[in-house]
């Protein structure tokens, strides 16, 4: 589908909600990785395929602009948000809920009341290098993004990787629990990654950053074979 067709189609958004308790917020990298796995979990869920109850919404969402919005919740807000159909994915400490896509102007009230701003998270210490062979979502080291924005971008990167894999590769990744890492490369390595032929997320520029900015490169061994990297 062309970009013009995508713009003309009804617009949907994939809601994600991250739990941020005031006194015990998750680490930033953990939240980004958990958001990426949440997107993959929804895409691989049987309710999102075929005649599943979420399938039509997922198809409509993927036929338009691929939008994801991350909101934050804590305490009673988090509990209320759990009453809607969702998948809750946990990381080391992070908890992220992903919901079936909704119309851009048709958010459920309980989610619409949640704040988008305030998703400022930090890592207590620098994350270690990614394990050898682990899929890596490389974040642009030159862009300053809020944690919520970065979580959405990590989800985009995971989705691009998912689209490029064979059915067998998707099944193997799902059965392993969608292991992945989110890291930022050295600035000098970023250009090589974006020129490698691996999937690159280019942001539409709706929030925070300039339209067309490259935000994430999805690096997975099967994708390297495809890209010739």
Stretches where pLDDT is under 50 for at least 5 consecutive residues are: none
Our Rg estimate from Cα atoms comes to: 17 Å
Helix content percent band: 25-40%
For the terminal residues, how far apart are their CA atoms? 26 Å
Q: Keywords for this structure?
A:
229 residues; alpha+beta; 5-stranded mixed beta sheet; 4-stranded mixed beta sheet; 37% helix; globular
Describe the structure.
The protein is α+β, with helices and mostly antiparallel strands. It has helices spanning 3-8, 28-44, 55-63, 75-81, 109-112, 147-164, 167-175, 187-194, 221-227; strands at residues 12-19, 67-73, 87-90, 95-98, 102-103, 136-139, 181-183, 200-202, 214-219. The radius of gyration is 17 Å and the shape is globular.
Brief summary of the model shown:
By secondary structure, the chain is of the alpha+beta class. The chain contains nine helices and nine strands.
Question: Which SSEs are present, and which pair or pack?
Answer:
Blueprint (H helix, E strand, L loop, with lengths): L2 H6 L3 E8 L8 H17 L10 H9 L3 E7 L1 H7 L5 E4 L4 E4 L3 E2 L5 H4 L23 E4 L7 H18 L2 H9 L5 E3 L3 H8 L5 E3 L11 E6 L1 H7 L2
Parallel strand pairs: 1-2, 6-7
Antiparallel strand pairs: 1-4, 1-5, 3-4, 6-9, 8-9
């Amino acid at each position: 589908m062309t970009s013009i067709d995508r713009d003309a189609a009804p617009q949907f958004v994939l809601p994600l909600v991250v739990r941020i308790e005031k006194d015990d917020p998750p680490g930033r990298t953990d939240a980004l990785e958990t958001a990426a796995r949440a997107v993959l979990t929804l895409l691989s869920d049987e309710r999102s395929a075929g005649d599943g109850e979420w399938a039509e919404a997922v198809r409509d969402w993927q036929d338009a602009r691929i939008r994801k919005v991350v909101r934050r919740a804590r305490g009673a807000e988090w509990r209320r948000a759990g009453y809607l159909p969702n998948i809750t994915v946990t990381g080391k400490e992070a908890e992220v809920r992903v919901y079936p896509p909704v119309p851009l102007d048709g958010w459920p009230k309980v989610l619409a009341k949640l704040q988008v701003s305030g998703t400022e998270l930090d890592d207590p210490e620098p994350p270690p290098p990614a394990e050898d062979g682990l899929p890596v979502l490389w974040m642009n080291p030159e862009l300053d993004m809020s944690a919520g924005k970065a979580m959405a971008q990590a989800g985009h990167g995971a989705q691009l990787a998912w689209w490029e894999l064979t059915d067998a590769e998707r099944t193997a990744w799902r059965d392993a629990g969608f292991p992945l890492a989110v890291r930022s490369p050295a600035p000098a390595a970023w250009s090589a990654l974006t020129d490698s032929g691996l999937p690159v997320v280019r942001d539409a520029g709706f929030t925070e950053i300039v339209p067309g900015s490259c935000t994430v490169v999805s690096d997975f061994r099967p994708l390297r074979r495809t890209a010739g990297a």
